[in-house]
Each structure stands twice: as C-alpha cells, then as structure tokens.
Specification:
homodimer, about 140 residues, mainly alpha, 8 helices, 3 strands, globular, DNA-binding
Chain lengths: ~140, ~140
Amino acid sequence: MHEQLKLSNQLCFRLYTVTRLITQAYRPLLDPLGLTYPQYLVMMVLWEQDNQTVGDIGRRLMLDTNTLTPMLQRMEREGLLVRTHGISDGRQTLVSLTKKGIHLEEKAKDIPACMSQNWHGDTMSNDQLNSMVNGIDTLINGMR
Amino acid sequence: MHEQLKLSNQLCFRLYTVTRLITQAYRPLLDPLGLTYPQYLVMMVLWEQDNQTVGDIGRRLMLDTNTLTPMLQRMEREGLLVRTHGISDGRQTLVSLTKKGIHLEEKAKDIPACMSQNWHGDTMSNDQLNSMVNGIDTLINGMR
DNA sequence: TATCTTTGCATCGTGAACGATATAAATTAT
DNA sequence: ATAATTTATATCGTTCACGATGCAAAGATA
C-alpha cells in the first residue's frame, strides 16, 4: 500500500469535496432566484460591470467559451441577459443585463452574509480564514 | 453596487476556481492511465481497501449513487473493476478491482509527489499548507 | 402472514466543465 | 490586394454532479 495514495493525505480531495459541499449549500439560497452557482458567478461579474464580452467574463472567471456560451444561452432564455453581436468587432458577443437581471441584485445582496454565517460564522477565526484565502491564491497563481 | 457581491471578496469562488485548475493539472498525469480525476479518487479508495460496496465508496467520497453508479459502470467497461450483486444482502453491489485495476496502482504511485511538486512545491510553506488543510477540514465538518 | 417502512442501488433529466474542432471576422504578411 | 495567421465565439461529445424518482430486498410492525 502506497501511503501517499491515501485519500486522507490529499489536499486536492479536500478542495474537491468542500467545493461540492459549498455549491450544495448555495442551492437553497439561489433556487428562489432561479440561479445555479456558476450562473450566480456570471451575474456577480455583470453586476460589478455591465456590458462585457464573453471573453471579458471568461477572463474574470477563468472559464473558456465552451463553458460560458451554453450557460449564457440558458441565462438569455431565462431573461436575465441579452447577447448582441459586437458593433466595433464583429467577432465579439456583448453580454448585457436585462431589467430582470439588474433587479436580481437586490434579492441577492444578502446571500454572501448568509453563507458566511452558515459555515465559518462560528467555527472559524478571521485569521484562519485569511490564511486560507491567501493559501488558495498562492495555489491559483502558482498553476495559472 | 453591493460590496459584498464582489467576486474578489468571495472564498467560494477561489475554492471553485482552484479545484477546477487542480483537476486540469491532474489531466496530463492521469490521461496515460486512462483515468479521470473522479475515477482516480475511486481507485484510491479501492487500492486502500478492495471489495467495497457502492455505499462504502460513496460515504468515503461523500458522493451519492446517482454519481457513482454511472461512473463505476464506465470503469467496469474499461476493465478496471467488476460489480457483483451482494451475496449476504441482495441490494448491495460489491465493487472489486480487476488485475488491471490492481496493477494500475504501481503506475499511479508517483502522481501525488509529482502534483505537490507542481504547485506548493516551491511557493508554499508546510505551515501554510497545514493551516489550509485544517481550514478546509473545518469547513467540511461544519457543513456536513 | 400481510403490510409498512427503510435501505441500497439504478435511472433519468439538466446543467456544468472541458478537450477538440469549426467558423467568421480581424490582423498581419507577402 | 491576396494569402496566411490570429482572435472571438460557437458547437460537439464525453464525463461529472445532483435532484427526483423508481424498485426490489431487507427489516419492522401489526
């Protein structure tokens, strides 16, 4: 038996699991808004700055168009945003929020606080949280 | 603009992203073995202890049968394992490694070291790594 | 024994991820 | 200006993740 192949020794398995559990925890909060977690990420990008191209959003979320395009199409069907072909550059697709998409921000504004409360609210110190965030940023930058 | 809805403030987005990047980083190592990352997790569970039920594996990976059954069926088609109906309990499905599955451990044994090298190898201290692992365990236990 | 409930697994449908490939517009090179 | 290359999206196929549902075996209750 190879010790290093034990599940308990693996950081990656922990990250994989905690990410799934977090996504599940978001569901009851996002379901009423008609959003999935990845769609919520797209909405956050657009709430921060409207009228971005598919590429802009992709760079922000580190996702390629093979993931984004079908997702944006679904969100367009839901009436959250519209996709218009670029004026200056005919290759680009510009993504803009609809009124429905804009108004959704108001309903979403308490979700972050609600989520933090849910987990690290009581069990985790701010120091522990910050060192985790830094550690993850180190990982992300190291492999980008 | 709601400050708390900014992407940069979100631990979850970091976890989501780093998990995707890690899975991508595994690919070149796992492709030669004919495994995906989730399949690699299943193999680690079985290398640690052969002949487990679908439920055993699921509890270990915190995955339900709606994810595991199709995955195990694919792995059975690849000849990595066999699924036999339970003898004592007729409801259970027992998962056992084939010779091919057993021999694969030898080829996989250097993957963990290779992966650690890839990221935190140089950029991350052991202390930082440990505090991350503890932080994630705290999160996982807090929301399970 | 007959019925009810629980348990273990399978199936289905939808929404991601992502490698591979395609396509048209824009840019560069010849 | 024509051809070659790059860029921005889109499409396709496969694998996961997961809620919902189905079903048969096992266990509990009447």
